[in-house]
Amino acid sequence: MIVNSDQPFQIVYAIFSHEFLGLLLESYVVQVDEQGRLSYAYQNISSANAKEFDSGLDKTDYELIKLMDSMQPEVAIKPYMKKTSLRPKDYLQKVFDPKTEDKNIQSLLFQNLEIKRSKILPLLIGKRLFETSSDGNPTWKEIKVNAEPAKVIFRFEKGEFNTLYSPKVLFNGKEIKLQEKRGIMLCNDPAWLVMDQQLFH
Fold this sequence. Notes:
Blueprint: E1 9-18, E2 22-32, E3 38-44, H1 59-70, H2 73-76, H3 88-96, H4 103-123, E4 129-131, E5 141-145, E6 151-158, E7 163-171, E8 174-176, E9 184-187, E10 192-195, E11 198-200
Parallel strand pairs: 1-4, 5-11
Antiparallel strand pairs: 1-2, 2-3, 4-5, 6-7, 7-8, 9-10, 10-11
Helix pairs in contact: 1-4
């Protein structure tokens, strides 16, 4: 065990990219140092070990942990496995291998993960969310989870021969410049977007 539950710790949530399944979320506990900062001592927290860290968790954390457990690659693929001697990890690879791919299972997996993200993201309001680094550090870049929703309005411009329209996204009365910046769409329905280290919905 890397994190000592008798010492100060904090639960955090992290976005990571899976080679086949795209953006997924995972829960971690991180040891807190004497200055109250997150240290490099961290470990995954799941339903199996959550009770060890009960003093730092609330009801929402338990719900998030359970949902995130269910979207882990080897768990997410299990409902689609027919009788096979392959391990879940190998079966997942087979489903996405261009030579043996199964587009139907891929589609079902993506739909299932989208539903899970739509349940997880609202529960992250008030929690600490991070982007995982390429070396696996789950506290690489913090993402502010905005509690207030953004507003979408449509702008219309009447031309001589046609009418042009474009969406405009406002947050706290200011326009979010979607075309000038790179963003990550975490969930399509309902829409959750990461941009400038902020999570908008």
